[in-house]
């Protein structure tokens, strides 16, 4: 898919950018989000990834956390129709 011409719409009421609370391709995950996710993974009993091919590092790095030594006991499941390398 080509999103090169994707235009984020302006908010007609406030004049600002109307953007959902998501990380678009090419953007960085805000540091506070990264910290919150890592802390949540430390307390999690398992991790379920749904609807992601994990082909973008911003999502893949969270999914690979259970493979790191500190998270070895955390079971992980990925459910996606696309081929994944994780």
Structure description:
By secondary structure, the protein is α+β, with helices and mostly antiparallel strands. The protein has one domain. Strand 1 (47-50), helix 2 and strand 2 (76-79) form a beta-alpha-beta unit. It contains 2 helices and 2 strands; from the N terminus they run H-E-H-E.
Notable characteristics:
86 residues, alpha+beta, two-stranded parallel ribbon, 2 strands, elongated, EC 2.3.1.286, hydrolase, histone deacetylase activity, NAD-dependent
What best-fitting shape do the alpha-carbon axes yield? elongated
Point out poorly predicted stretches.
none
Biggest β-sheet: strands ordered side by side in the sheet? 1-2
Order of helices and strands: HEHE
Give Rg in angstroms.
16 Å
Derived from helix and strand composition plus strand pairing, the structural class reads alpha+beta
- How would you classify the quaternary structure? single chain
Number of helices: 2
Number of strands: 2
Helix content: 10-25%
Beta strand %: 5-15%
Mean pLDDT: 75
- For the report, how would you describe the main beta sheet? 2 strands, parallel
Alpha carbon gap, first and last residue: 21 Å
Number of domains: 1
GO molecular function: histone deacetylase activity, NAD-dependent; hydrolase activity; NAD+ binding
Keywords: Hydrolase, NAD, Transferase
InterPro entries: DHS-like_NAD/FAD-binding_dom (IPR029035), NAD-dep_sirtuin_deacylases (IPR050134), Sirtuin (IPR003000), Ssirtuin_cat_dom (IPR026590)
Organism: Afipia felis (Cat scratch disease bacillus)
């Amino acid at each position: 898919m080509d999103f090169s011409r994707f235009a984020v719409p302006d908010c007609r009421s406030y004049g600002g950018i109307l953007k959902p609370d998501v990380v678009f391709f090419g953007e960085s995950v805000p540091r506070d989000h990264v910290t919150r996710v890592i802390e949540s993974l430390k307390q999690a009993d398992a991790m379920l990834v749904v609807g992601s091919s994990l082909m973008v590092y911003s999502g893949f790095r969270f999914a690979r956390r259970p493979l790191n030594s500190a998270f070895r006991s955390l079971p992980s499941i990925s459910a996606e129709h696309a081929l994944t390398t994780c």
